Amino acid sequence: MTAATGLELADALTHTAKRIRRAALHRLAPLGLTPAQGRALHVIAASDGTLRPGGLADRLHIAPRSATSVVDALESRGLVTRSPAPDDRRATVLHITAAGTAMLTASREAREAVATDYFTALTDTDRATLLALLAKAEAAHAPDSEFTRKRGDHPHDHKHGHGHHH
């Protein structure tokens, strides 16, 4: 087995990501949620009612005007509400509704089904190894990225050779 080049790895990851994204979009279509709305709903849910629209724009790396459009769409469907900020009545904070939480759950289940289907050929050890390797590569470029923070650990911190099962 010859070593893969960086370009081969990048091409394989790009192809994989596109296939998973297409399948996820197909599964999410019946929910009527755009990817931007899904990401916004996730961020709003995680904020516990403390997030302002400007903070949402920052977290999603989009223009404030775009964040307002996304929130308007979510609010019109009853998935989020706006209310005055407790510390500044002129400011607005965003809250997820029960319907928004249900939509987030349905979205997560659809994405999970796609991922489970895609990675079904891999063993548990294969999946753990792949995730650890991707986290290691990401940590080398962005040690504090959302991906490496979500993992809760840094692969280069492991001292007992995890992932080397024979």
Provide a short characterization of the protein structure.
The chain is mostly helical and 166 residues long.
According to DSSP, the number of beta strands is 2
Give the low-confidence spans.
153-166
- What is the 3D shape? elongated
Quaternary assembly: single chain
What does this structure look like?
The protein is mainly α and 166 residues long. Helices cover 61% and strands 9% of the residues. It has 7 helices and 2 strands; from the N terminus they run ααααββααα. The protein has a two-stranded antiparallel sheet with strand order 1-2. A hairpin with a 2-residue loop joins strand 1 and strand 2. The chain starts with 5 loop residues before the first helix and ends in a 15-residue tail after the last helix.
Top keywords for this entry?
166 residues, 2 strands, mainly alpha
Write the layout of secondary structure elements.
Layout: H1 6-28, H2 35-46, H3 53-60, H4 64-76, E1 80-85, E2 88-96, H5 98-118, H6 124-141, H7 146-151
Antiparallel strand pairs: 1-2
